[in-house]
Amino acid sequence: MTPVEGDTRAREKYNMALAKAKGEKYREALHLLEESLELNFAFHEAHNLLGKVYLQLGKIRRAKKSWQKALYLDPSNNTARICLDALDRNRFHWWLALISMTVLVLIFFEVIFFMTLNRKVDLHATILREEKEKITMPIMENLNKRFDSLESAVLKLRNDLSRKEPRIEVIRKQVTVTKDPIEDRYKKSVYLFLDRRYEESRQSLMMLPMQEVKQSLKDNVVFWIGLCYYKQGRYPEALKQFEEVMELYPKGNKVPDAKKYRTRCLKKMNTENQAKTRL
User: Fold this and answer.
1) Which of 44, 76, 108 is the last residue of a domain?
2) Could you tell me where the DSSP H helices lie in the chain?
3) The total number of structural domains that make up the chain
4) 10-14, 89-93, 122-126, 238-242: segment of lowest average pLDDT
5) What angle do CA 68, 77, 20 make, to 5 degrees?
6) What pLDDT score does 159 carry?
7) Is the pLDDT of residue 94 over 70?
8) pLDDT tens, 208-264?
9) CATH number at residue 63
10) How far is Cα 245 from Cα 257, in angstroms, rounded to an integer?
11) Domain termination site, one of 54, 76, 98
């Protein structure tokens, strides 16, 4: 085949490929262009069209190579130069779009992440609040019960105090200083008892000279000594003093109290004896 015949047949293949490309039959056009270039590799117009076909088929690198070949074969080929410039611009816009899309995707996943994190934080906060309520509710109920019991105890103490106020007032009047030194010593001893200084009160009472004490106070002295023993937990000694009040001063004003505390001493002593027996 002569070069002229090759060029003619290459032109025919090119024209057929151009018709196929216009009809959007790009793969058939590609096959025809490859045959055309086999007949005449220096056919720059075929390289131009081949680049456009490659571009339509998504083969951008091959399209660029084809236009570069066309421009190499014909440096004045404006079509190839324009296509290469457009390809570079499109590639820049494509990269820009890709970067923008990547940023948008990252922002989307970041939003999803923070939304999920907020849900988890809310869930943990709810769980912690429920656990706190489970822990604090029994404590608060227990504190309320204790407060109620303390309030009841305070009310009871107030009622007891109100009942004992007349008796305390009588005792206070008894403690007032008189001209009788023996009676003053007696009243000071009673005052020590009221101040819960039981041992000092007992010793002070026992040091009183009974022959000099008024007859109306003798049963009181013996009774308060017994009461000091009772408060100190010395029940046998206390029992002895209360029985002495009942025997020596049967008409004294402390006999009723002596009987009451005698019974209490017997109960305490009985309880202690039973405890010792069990041990």
Assistant:
1) 76
2) 3-22, 26-39, 44-56, 60-73, 78-175, 181-194, 198-206, 215-231, 235-248, 255-278
3) 2
4) 89-93
5) 80
6) 81
7) no
8) 888 888 888 889 999 999 999 999 999 999 999 999 999 999 988 999 999 999 999
9) 1.25.40.10
10) 10
11) 76
Q: Which two tokens stand for residue 45?
A: 């117009």
Domain that holds residue 210: 176-278
* pLDDT value of residue 176: 52
How far is residue 185 from each of residues 137, 212, 218, measured CA to CA in Å? 58, 12, 13
What's at 145, amino acid-wise?
Answer: K
Residue type, 131: E
Burial of 100 (0-12, 13-18, 19+ CB in 10 A): exposed
Secondary structure of 111-154 as H, E, C letters: HHHHHHHHHHHHHHHHHHHHHHHHHHHHHHHHHHHHHHHHHHHH
CA 20/CA 17 separation, integer angstroms: 5
Distance in angstroms (rounded) separating the CA atoms of residues 219 and 201: 16
